[in-house]
Design a protein that fits this description.
By secondary structure, this protein is mainly β. It contains 1 helix and 10 strands; from the N terminus they run βββαβββββββ. The protein is globular, with a radius of gyration of 15 Å. The chain binds zinc ion (2 copies).
Length: 139
């Protein structure tokens, strides 16, 4: 059985359908996410590109640094980003219904401005299967 989740921008012009569950979810503390979100860290859920369908609305693409980001042309709210290194789409976990995104670890903790103490692994950069060193830091 396949389930899907629809997410929308703030004004409702853009609606995007996500098929199935995220491949993985985590909290990212990198300075890129901080700059874009205005927050200390972001909850990220990764979906395969094939799972993402734009149902309606106009998206425009922009970049702060490396990642192409897609925002509503009307209200300017980011709907998703392309995580090009993994050929996946990153969705802010806060836009998903409760329980869909289950973050498994924290990444880019070396940039953290607001450490979060919990039972999850805290990677200085990223796990080895995400191209990182796999080193964790203690908070
Ligand atoms: Zn909008
Ligand atoms: Zn980040």
């Amino acid at each position: 059985m396949s389930t899907s989740t629809d997410i929308a921008c703030a004004c409702g012009d853009v609606r995007v359908r996500l098929e199935g569950a995220p491949d993985i979810a985590f909290y990212c503390h990198c300075d890129d996410c901080q700059a874009v979100s205005g927050g200390a860290y972001v909850s990220v859920a990764l979906f395969p590109k094939s799972a993402v369908t734009v149902l309606r609305g106009t998206l425009e693409t922009w970049k702060l640094r490396a990642l192409p980001r897609h925002r509503c042309a009307r209200c300017g709210i980011q709907v998703f980003a392309e995580v090009t290194a993994f050929d996946q789409i990153g969705v802010n976990g806060a836009r998903l219904p409760p329980g869909v995104s289950k973050p498994a670890f924290h990444i880019q903790c070396r940039y953290a401005v607001n450490p979060v103490v919990d039972d999850l692994p805290h990677y200085a950069d990223a796990p080895t299967d995400f191209g990182g060193s796999g080193n964790t830091i203690g908070w």
